[in-house]
Amino acid sequence: MEERVSIFIDGGNFYHLVLKKMGLRELDFDFEAFSTLLANGRTIAEHGKRFYIGTVRERAGDPKSVEAMSRQNSLFTTLTNTKWEVKTSKLRQRREKLTIDNRVEECEKIRKLGIREIRFIRDREKGIDVKLVTDLFIGAIDNKYDTAVIVSSDTDLVPAIDSVRHRLSRKVEYVGFSIENHSDPDDNTKPIISMIQRTDIQRTLIESDLKPFIKPTMLKLPEI
Known about the structure:
This protein is of the alpha/beta class. It has one domain: Rossmann fold. Helix content is 33%, strand content 28%. Strands 4-3-2-1-5-6-7 form a 7-stranded mixed beta sheet, sandwiched between helices. The relative contact order is 0.18.
């Protein structure tokens, strides 16, 4: 009997750990071709390609948010046209505070300027990991796959992975990445040890493994 795999891609996690460090956006990457690499000769189960992402919202007076929404809608169209299940969750704005202390480089220089803290607004995904975990469990319970291929380095998934493996007798494959951040060597992407230790199969992909999935750029012809 052929082994059936379901692929679960945490889109936000993949963007920040991989695409952003390669100077790419989601639309630059061929996820459909990537799924063939992930399947690795195995059969992709029915409804077995799932992509999880926080949705961008338009903000009044912010043209960048309009552009981001347009790009994301194009991504969703591309994915659904190739039979990916797209699972979304709203991005929530959260106010955060950074205290200027010895964790911050050149903190003394900054503090001499009278700056003790920096307040900023950050978008956070809410509920994406819950949706991924729910699909992981339902697929196992309903016998929809033999192996779950998880493209995420979110350690919050570890308890669910343990349950799927030991209580529901499914294999879990962790796909991690080793990607250099050329602008900040302290922020290189590395595979997560706890994910390696708690899964049946582990794969670590490097930048050269991913370059074949970068879509060719349309060259703009000079105006006459």
